[in-house]
Amino acid sequence: MDAVAIGQKDNSRKAYYKEFREVIEAADVILEILDARDPLGYRTKEIEKMVNNSGSGKKIILILNKIDLVPRENVTQWLEYLRKDYPTVAFKSSTQTQRKNLGHSSASTAKISDNKLQHSNECLGADDLIQLLKNYCRSCNIKTSIVVGVIGYPNVGKSSVINSLKRSKVCGVGATPGLTKHAQEIHLDKNIKLLDSPGIVFARDQGGDKNSEILLKNCVKIEQLDDPISPVELIVSRCSAQQLMNKYNVPMFRDVNDFLIHVARQRGKLKRGGIPNIDAAARIILQDWNSGNIPYFTTPPTSAITMEVENN
Question: Is the pTM of this model over 0.85?
């Protein structure tokens, strides 16, 4: 299994992985941050196995982050599925940008109104998570404090979760992959210390759809992609043609190339001589996908994973 740390092209993968391992080894509790739109796609069972086999009694908690981007019933289904393995908390990080102190909502994520879930700037799920962590503090025979390692893919929301728990902007946050390059230590209170780890992708370079899947997780900066079209082909295969036509105000298209030609013309992305710049159009699509402007979500598997896409 190759450990691939995604950041700028000149970043040391070995250094990223060293930082990551140090967080795992130091932590008593591991918070694994998952994107609610595709929880299994962001889950690293290799790490869970490594933690469980360490013999150190470390705990794992799954955080179903970005729950405002999927239907409520989908969140409920995933919670039921994931809780068969580990404690799982539904979470929405605070999106407040102007205030120094970030707000918490004490409302249950299961009972909060759809309107507040979709439009509130306040964090949801923090109280449940903090209470769970405090229970672990009390359950230790000798220790009265715990170290909590926060892990997950690049740009899955690790730093946002920490900021929301701390109620202040103690970690850098941005839509750029690889923003956290070193482990950061944050004291939540006198008994709980958080460690934010660099984002790491565990995957072999298998080519084809496997690499495109990684690119759709916003693990590589869009401007660094040599081939932005292949992942867009995967997006087109997942979304209905009507959804994309409505989203980008384009006519019916035959394939991904035809779709990108229409988008390039619609957005004014033209080369000299009026030739559509399909690479530039593809980067627009990828940016919309990564930011959640193209709605999608997965459903828990029965015998296989089923992908569902919201139609606009």
Answer: no
| Sign of torsion over alpha carbons 312, 40, 292, 229 | negative
72 secondary structure, DSSP code: H
Q: What was the pLDDT predicted at 95?
A: 65
Q: pLDDT tens-digit profile of 178-223?
A: 444 456 788 988 889 999 887 666 554 444 455 677 778 766 778 8
Residue 194: both structure tokens together: 């958080």
Torsion of the alpha carbons at 95, 96, 101 and 106, rounded to the nearest 10:
-60
Q: Write out the binding residues for GTP.
A: 65-68, 155-160, 199
Binding site residues, as ranges? Answer: 65-68, 155-160, 199
Q: Buried b vs exposed e over 44-63: b needs ≥16 C-beta within 10 Å?
A: beebbeebeeeeeebbbbbb
User: Is the fold of 3-202 the same as that of 225-308?
Assistant: no
Domain boundaries, the chain: 3-202, 225-308
- Measured CA to CA, the distance from residue 73 to residue 108 in angstroms comes to 15
- The two tokens of residue 74 are 């989908």
CATH number for region 225-308: 1.10.1580.10
